[in-house]
């Protein structure tokens, strides 16, 4: 109908005017706390150095980036409160990086369809990634038909599952999963399938029973999606130092994803006693 078309056009123009980006551009989003902002800045610079087209960057964090310009900032604290991200938290305690299971940036991925209501596709990248190829062709070669909600590099089965989670994976015949540090979202399909609602069901059931998963924020998303994700080439999420050492045993490596606990930007501030202090000092006060 002409009236609906006109309304849609006016809303699109308003969106572009207010935020400076439109639905047909190339959009990449990062979610991180302040400690990982240097990694985000490094990755944005690496993307820009290879991109053949203009990229629109979004950063969901507590404070805007300081050393890169033209990045759309979204306040993570507001996102956490507005969309009640604590509903998704993993209740298990982790000795290694104990705050990771309740780290807001990890859960902001679940509500990108809400944060960016006018976008149809967006690429999510972890802060500890570095891009060495042009990302633009990736947008033209994946998630083209609104059939699947996510594209990612396939991995083995779902990690971190407990007995009930393993039974769910078996019933759904989940034969492989993916690493959630590099994900292209079809936000249209994500909304249609209500993937966030499915994730929330698993997360809240796990909070009550402590029987589905214990590791991180990815398991409920992996269980919700099952095998319904499009495969990105492995070169777009290579979890090994060989990528940077140019000993990658295959086609060119396009994205290096650091597996190290201590990132490059943390090396000068690393405190080997940090865990001991965090674990035991409260009992001494």
From TrEMBL:
Signal sequence extent: 1-22
InterPro entries named among the record's database cross-references: Glyco_trans_8, Glycosyltrans_8_dom-fam, Nucleotide-diphossugar_trans
Keywords for the protein's UniProt record, in alphabetical order: Glycosyltransferase, Metal-binding, Signal, Transferase
SUPFAM superfamilies attached to this UniProt entry: Nucleotide-diphospho-sugar transferases
Top-level taxon: Eukaryota
Molecular function GO terms recorded: glycosyltransferase activity; metal ion binding
Assigned protein family: Belongs to the glycosyltransferase 8 family.
Name this protein carries in UniProt: Hexosyltransferase
Natural source organism: Paramoeba aestuarina
